[in-house]
Amino acid sequence: MLKRFIYFLVTATFIASIALLCYVNKYQIFSFFDAQKILKPAEQIQNFLATSTVSDTTNTNLIGVIKIPSSTAVIIEYDQTGKTISEWAGTGNDVVINGGYFNEDYSPSGFLVVNKKRIGDKIFDQDKSGLIEIKNGKINIRDLNEMPIQENEEFEFALQSYPFLIKNYQPALESDSGKKARRSALGIDENGDVYLFVADFPYLSLYEFMNEIIKTGIKFSNVINLDGGPSTGIYVNTDAEQFFIDSYTKVPSIIRFLKTVD
After folding, report:
1. CA 251, CA 89: separation in Å to the nearest integer?
2. What single-letter DSSP state applies at residue 230?
3. Is 57 helix (H, G, I), strand (E, B) or coil?
4. Which of 64, 162, 231, 245 could form a disulfide with 227 if both were Cys (CB 3.0 to 4.6 A apart)?
5. Integer Cα distance of 6 and 37 in angstroms
6. Contacts of 25 (CB under 8 A, 6+ apart)
7. CB neighbours of 57 closer than 8 A, spacing ≥ 6?
8. Which of 252, 226, 153, 199 is nearest to 57 (CA)?
């Protein structure tokens, strides 16, 4: 109990210090590699600290919204024994977020390609899932229902995930399961900019998570859910800041964003 309290206290302090998490409809977006864009509104910090330790979570729908600069390259990495997000941490200017779904032996449960090499042989429900594709360091979210993976198709990096939260600029979920969990997702806006979304505490269903993303007011073309729950985690290492929300469990795949030379 004490360990869990300390974990939440450290996590709350971290989030408050960089104001990644936003209260209800009030969102601040942090661009990782620009220290001038770190925003610390005192009201949001106080709201978060006041609600993060109470049992009634009615008014604690909090998400972190992170914009990745256009000067950032991206890759997918895989480790067959799995690592926590803190263990995946890099040594340069980079950002790491948990990747796709996996089995008990850490093999991917969906389609995965790393450095042009197929990892495993699994693929699931192309009619309901999407593919995060990376080519020449740039990222795209592909609707596999409209464009299924072809038998001999080649990829540099690719990771299958589901469900879409936003697809073709429209909300993708029609009903609420009511199941609350930690959450993570990746999205692309109308300008091609990449965003990461994290809900560190298990206060949101997928439907609620989708709606919180919509409330940011940013026009997203596509947003796809990542493997949340205990896998949720993000690590940031920049010239200005170093911090992380660690995963509760080891994860075999991650998406890493690397600052390129200006």
Report:
1. 13
2. G
3. coil
4. 231
5. 29
6. 215
7. 51, 180, 201, 203
8. 199
Q: Would you state the pLDDT for residue 30? A: 42
81 is written with which tokens?
């024994």
Rg (CA), the chain: 17
Q: What are 215-220's contacts with CB under 8 Å, separation 24+?
A: 215/25, 215/27, 216/27, 216/29, 216/65, 217/27, 218/189, 219/169, 219/189, 219/190, 220/166, 220/169, 220/187, 220/188, 220/189, 220/190, 220/195
Backbone angles phi, psi at 46, to 5 degrees: -65, -40
Structure tokens at 155: 């990829």
Q: What is the pLDDT of residue 90?
A: 72
d(CA 205, CA 166): 15
Residue the block writes with tokens 């997928």:
206
Q: Among candidates 163, 237, 230, 234, which has minimal Cα distance to 201?
A: 230
* Beta strands 181-189; 220-225: pairing state: antiparallel
Burial of 258 (0-12, 13-18, 19+ CB in 10 A): middle
Q: What is the DSSP letter of 91?
A: S
Q: How far, in Å, CA of 195 to CA of 202, rounded?
A: 21
Length of the chain: 262
**Which strand ranges, in their side-by-side order, compose the sheet holding 130-135?**
117-118, 112-114, 157-161, 130-135, 138-143
Whether pTM > 0.90 for this model: the answer is: no
Domain residue limits, the chain: 68-259
Low-confidence ranges of the chain (pLDDT < 70): 1-61, 91, 238-243, 260-262
